[in-house]
Amino acid sequence: MIMAKSITEARAHCEHLVHGEGRESWVSRFFKATADAPDQPVAFLVDKKPDSVIAPHFHEVNQFQVIVGGSGKLGKQEVRPFVLHYTNGFTGYGPITAEDEGISFFTLRNRFDPGGARFFPEGRSFMRPARKRHRVSDHIELSDDEALKSRTSEVLEIAIEPEDDGLAAWFLRAVPGVKTQAPSPADGGGQYLIVARGTLLYGGDAYPELSCVYVPADSGPMPLEAGAEGLEVLIAQFPVAETYLPETD
Which domain of life is it from (predicted)? Predict the structure, then answer.
């Protein structure tokens, strides 16, 4: 079943979290999985203060992150809106360092993460032999208001080149008031759509910028209708499954 939530609804329940050593985050949750329902999607938007640092770590599941506000560094790479980052489960990444404006990013998973963030060096004992994979898109330039509302032909750009197991990402620039659809999710392990600019019309509701949609692999292509001011949407597709290397003795 396709799941959609507006940024307005998610922001209404924003949580202020204080982590170890006084690290702060403001988290707006869209979709949440649990140990009792591990196959549900997980999506949340994180806002970090200027000069915040998230230390290098890994997760046990595949994950996308989308930089949607502020600026900073992912490892040594400069990142700003819109940049998409993907890692396989058990692939380390970071640190994520916020600059003067702070940084905001979506975290997107297609299932429950049983271990949470495993920070180095302590978390290394939880590492498993696995296929390491790390992908970062080029910076995606968003259209200004005039270009957004005056577009006359649809454009579908590749953000992450499609891979054999279904991993891929696209950026779709739609024509105002016109119906279209996202690429088929059938070859992957589920898709997320993030409204980057304009408004998405779906199911009788209007979803503004930074709204989030999850599309299961068996649901068929997501129908898209741009609002009168236009629509630009990021589409992030998971691989078919986590691909782990054989355990070693």
Answer: Bacteria
